[in-house]
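Last lecture ended with a question: if I hand you only a sequence, what can you say about the shape of the protein? Today we answer it with a concrete record. The protein is Myo-inositol-1(Or 4)-monophosphatase. Below, first the input exactly as provided, then the predicted structure, then a couple of comments.
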Amino acid sequence: MKKTFDQLDDFVSALMQHVRQQVLAHLQQPLDIKTKSNSRDLVTNVDRLVEQYYVQAIREFDPVANILGEEGLGDAIDSMVGSVWIVDPIDGTLNFVKQKDQFATMVAYFENGQPRGAWILDVMENELLHGAPEFGVWLNTKKLSAPANLSLVESVVSLSGARLLHNVPGFQAVAGAALGYRVYGSAGISFIRLARGQVGAFMSYLKPWDFAAGQVLCQALGLQVTKFDRKVDDMLSSSLIVAATKNAANDILALTNTSM
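The predicted structure:
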C-alpha cells in the first residue's frame, strides 16, 4: 500500500531520533576509525552501525525497498524504478570525529524517480529539515518559506574546502565575488543553512547520498539546483552541484561558464 507523506515523515523522523541517541552515546566511547580514499575521508563503526539500522528498519517498513547507502550495506542500484531510499548515515564524518559537531544524518525517498520525501537532521542541534515537493518544507515543526532571492554579491556562500584549497576552476571566483564564504565540511549542514536563508548558495562535488535529500528539499523551497555534468534528475551519479537562490545561481553560472 502506498504510504502517505505523513506516514513517511513519522517513520523517518522516529528513526532519526533513535539514530541521534545512538550517535550521542557513541560520542562518549572510543571510535573505530578507518580511512577510505584519503586521510580526510573517514568512516567509523558508528557510520556502519547507523546505516545498518536504517537498512533493517526500512526493509521492515517497505519490504520491496531498494536502498542505496554510503557504506554499501544496502543494495547495488542502477535504476530509480520502484521504491528507492538513499541514505547517508553520518554526513561530515571528519567533523563527527574531530569536532563532535556540525554533522548530519540524511535520508531521501523516491518512487519511480519521483521524490516523495527528504530528511536532514543536524544531530547535535537536533534540527530536522524535512518535507516533500507537494507538502512544503519544515524545520522541526516550523514551516519554511522560500529564502530571499539574493544575488551572489549579497550572499554568504558555502563551498567545498578541498576544492577551494586546490583552486578547482570556478571555486575561487565564486568565493571572491560573494559577500563572504564558509566551509562547513558537511553537505547536510550546508543544505540546512541554505534552507534557512543563512547562505545563498552551496557549491561542492557530491555523491548521491550527499545531495539526494538536499536537492529534494531545495527544489521544494523554490531554490535552484544545477548539476554541471549530469541531468538534474540523475540521482545515482556523482556531480559538481550548485544549490542556490535563483539570482545567486545565475551569477555563479555566469562566473563558472567562463572559468570552468
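Comments.
1. The mean pLDDT is 93.
2. The CA atoms of residues 8 and 117 lie 7 Å apart.
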